[in-house]
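Notes, p. 3: input format for complexes.
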Amino acid sequence: MTTLYEGAYAKLNLTLDVLGKRKDGYHDLQSVMQTISIRDDVEIDIGTGKEWKLLCSMEGIPTDRRNLAMKAAAVYCDALGKDPGGLEIRIHKRIPSGAGMGGGSADAAAVLRALNRHYGEPLSLPALAELGAQVGSDVPFCTICGTAMVEGRGERLRKLPDMPDCVFVVCKPEFSVSTPELYQKIDTAAIPVRPDNRAMESALLAGDLEAVARQVYNVFDPVVTAEHLELNYIKSICNSYGSLAQQMTGSGSAVFAILPSFEYAAVVCNMLKENYPQVYIAKPV
Ligand code: C5P
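Output follows (285 residues plus cytidine-5'-monophosphate):
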């Protein structure tokens, strides 16, 4: 039996635009995504000689084949005709769930990278990311990590220059949002403001953190904030203590703030901790 270890990094949407509904029911997106140092640890035992099994340190996460990590293992083995001879996946969870931080997708991507490494890298990273699209919309990006422009359903990726050095504070309020319901809602709502992804790309190219911060925008943010005014409270605390930008990530409900240094981040973190147990400090990775 062999044990594989892989880190699964959370993502933030620096920008997120929903362009329209597709014939397959999904939506075409344009999003600049960033992985951060909040990480699950994924361990995989290969060749257990038993039925496939998944263990997760966090309660409330499905441990059957609905779990994206299990699905990823199945998709990889099917696509490459591999039989691992029994497999056990253990996930040590740190990424909050129902947050818009791609926790399940990150785990799935980690499984894809680990299995691909184990079998001698038969797939290139872009080919592995393409395979990830069969598992979930955020899996392709979570496979390649870093900073990227993500388009289509989430399967079209283009690497962008690294995010300039900064510190993120992420705050996960208690409530969660149903992603399919939110997409339905945005179908009927007008989108008055959209991110300028070209300007975001230029800001990244210039390595200008303040310009990057000015372009942070998620079209889902006002839709969720209208029903959960506490997001404004979180954002106002961030803003009062030196945050350059504050915005919801993905379909929420976590809000992230961009700070110029750890000192600023620590102050924002302490202020939020008074009311929220789930507050994190992270770096771009
Ligand atoms: O692919 P994934 O399972 O992450 O998507 C979750 C849900 O989010 C989908 O069932 C769909 O309702 C919605 N979605 C969408 N368009 C996308 C990504 C997700 O409509 N590009």
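The chain has ten helices and twelve strands.
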